[in-house]
Amino acid sequence: MSSNTDHFANRRTFLAWIRTGIALMGFGFVIAKFEIFLHILVKESTSSLNDSLVAGEVMIVLGMVTIAYGLFEFLANERDLDNNKYNSRKTEIIIFCSLIIGMAILLLLFIL
After folding, report:
1. pLDDT at residue 103, rounded to an integer
2. 32 vs 50: CA distance, rounded Å
3. Which tens digits make up the pLDDT trace of 23-65?
4. CA distances, 10 to each of 3, 53, 100 (Å)
5. What is the CA radius of gyration of the chain?
6. HSE (CB half, 13 Å, CA atoms) of 67?
7. Does an H or E element contain 3, and which?
């Protein structure tokens, strides 16, 4: 039988996913805006934007994916708590981690 504390812990975990996603999006926004600011400062055309703008956009997408996965986990855990059972979601975690690692490799390739 699940208790209120189980549901509250699930919500706190969801809020941690949200905070992480917002931090990633904020960091991506700062990277992208800084690149645009540098082009304005040097008075270059913004049509020649470079890899840091792409890196910032990837970070923003990464933040959105993190929030979406956090919502998926929250809803799945709530369902499990309501049904008084636990289901391991190893496959979903492996897919999520693979996606994050893949995006990190893409960012690394852009930087190099």
Report:
1. 83
2. 10
3. 999 999 988 888 777 777 776 655 555 777 888 888 899 999 9
4. 11, 35, 22
5. 19
6. 12
7. none
Q: d(Cα 102, Cα 52) in Å, to the nearest integer?
A: 17
Q: What single string gives the DSSP state of each residue in 86-98?
A: ----HHHHHHHHH
| Token pair recorded at residue 97 | 């981690």
Amino acid residing at 98: S
CB 110 within 8 A of CB 51: yes
What is the secondary structure of 32-96 as a DSSP string? HHHHHHHHHHHT--GGG--HHHHHHHHHHHHHHHHHHHHHHHHHHHHHHHHTT-----HHHHHHH
Under 8 Å between Cβ of 33 and 54: no
